[in-house]
Write a structure and sequence with these properties.
binds adenosine-5'-triphosphate; alpha+beta; membrane; nucleotide-binding; cell inner membrane; Rossmann fold; disordered N terminus; six-stranded mixed beta sheet; 386 residues; five-stranded antiparallel beta sheet; 2 domains; cell membrane; ATP-binding; OB fold (Dihydrolipoamide Acetyltransferase, E2P)
């Protein structure tokens, strides 16, 4: 429920500065496998030192996009530019990218240090330099005590760090990570996410990560591209994707949300933004304050609101003309910090409200079958026109 909103600690937003050129640019890229179009006329800019996530359901084209950047596949149409230069035809080993696979692909018969050194030996680097870089990498991923072990003598998290060290040893400018934490359990995954962010920031590298885990993308990324069947639906910071999704698809894909279909009754400009009125399910009226609205009165739109923005009370509000609906508590999900109340409305549909579990000894807790009112402020919902 309470989502991390990404690495907000760092002031980093080159995409807002028109004078900064993108580091990587996919320009009108299409990839076909026979008749099947895996990536459709896609344009995307990624900036130097960015931690960028490709997020989407299985088969939406994330890995294909990454493999084209690494040079394992070529676009059918369009081009990929790295620092402004077209890299089509450049073989993978000559690109300043390195890909870390989900399987890690470690050599089982080699020790940790030999695994890390392997790519450097292939490149015929002097022995002294190889040794120095292996030591540097072991230190970076905190595996110095394990240098002589074989992969089978390591935990899953340690193996993941060997794979990371091996990918970084060649000092790529861009590290491509395909589901890098997929094999780890939840707790280790969360710890490793923060390690990855530290390493990326300390080394000043550009990371492109493929994941279908929305929480992971929210935690690690500067920006996220949400994909659907070969196209990008939205590219934005985790906070923007969460607070201002541009479509039903993105709203529904990230986090928990109530989405109700309705008709736009009108949009009245006020100051810098305006107030949209929507009649939901032909039933209740909502008013939404937002920057703009690209639909006209009468259009089919959706009203969306996150459960944590919905207040629940057994008392009726003073004004029930808009942004207030009543129903009966049908189910309660206890999530530790939060409880989620599933409320059945008079029209038979359900609506969710989440409430922090702060003990209020004087109040009787809301329970199953209670008659309740759900209310929210006009600036906490959104109108989705796509
Ligand atoms: P996942 O999360 O499951 O890895 P993804 O978003 O990374 O999915 P891709 O691996 O990019 O998806 O695949 C996109 C689509 O292209 C899929 O439908 C896949 O079957 C198809 N595809 C990928 N590679 C090939 C190939 N070499 N030949 C034919 N079809 C392919």
């Amino acid at each position: 429920m309470a989502k991390s909103l990404g690495p907000v600690k760092r002031k980093f937003s080159p995409w807002t500065d028109p004078s900064v050129k993108p580091f990587i640019r996919f320009e009108n890229v299409t990839k076909r496998f026979g008749d099947f179009v895996a990536v459709k006329n896609l344009t995307l800019d990624i900036y130097e030192r960015e931690f960028f996530s490709l997020l989407g359901p299985s088969g939406c084209g994330k890995t294909t996009l990454m493999r084209m950047l690494a040079g394992f596949e070529e676009p059918t149409e369009g081009k990929i530019l790295l620092q402004g230069k077209d890299i089509s035809g450049v073989p993978p080993y000559k690109r300043p990218t390195n890909m870390m696979f989900q399987s890690y692909a470690l050599f089982p018969h080699m020790s940790v240090e030999k695994n890390i050194a392997f790519g450097l030996e292939q490149d015929n680097l002097p022995k002294g330099e190889i040794d120095a870089r292996v030591q540097e990498m072991l230190k970076l991923v905190k595996l110095e005590p394990f240098a002589k072990r074989k992969p089978s003598q390591l935990s899953g998290g340690q193996r993941q760090r060997v794979a990371l060290a091996r990918s970084l040893a060649k000092r790529p400018k861009v590290l491509l990570l395909d589901e890098p934490l997929g094999a780890l359990d939840k707790k280790l995954r969360e710890e490793t996410q923060f390690e990855l962010m530290d390493i990326q920031q300390n080394l000043g590298l550009t990371f492109l990560i493929v994941t279908h885990d929305q929480e992971e993308a929210m935690t690690v990324s500067d920006r996220i591209a949400v994909m659907d069947r070969g196209i990008i639906m939205q590219v934005a910071t985790p906070a923007e994707i969460y607070e201002a999704p541009n479509s039903r698809y993105v709203a529904d894909f990230i986090g928990d949300i109530n989405i109700v279909e309705g008709k736009l009754a009108g949009f009245e400009p006020r100051g810098e933004g305006g107030r949209a009125t929507v009649i939901c399910d032909g039933d209740f009226k909502v008013e939404v304050e937002q920057g703009h609205c690209d639909a006209t009165a009468g259009a089919d739109v959706a009203f969306a609101i996150r459960p944590e923005k919905v207040r629940i009370s057994t008392e009726a509000p003073a004004d029930t003309s808009a942004n207030a609906i009543s129903g009966e508590v049908w189910d309660i999900g206890y999530l530790g910090d939060f409880s989620v109340f599933i409320v059945k409305l008079a029209n038979g549909k359900t609506f969710r409200a989440a409430q922090a579990n702060i003990a209020r000894l004087v109040d009787r807790p809301i329970t199953i079958e209670d008659k309740v009112w759900l209310t929210w402020s006009a600036d906490s919902g959104m109108v989705l026109t796509r």
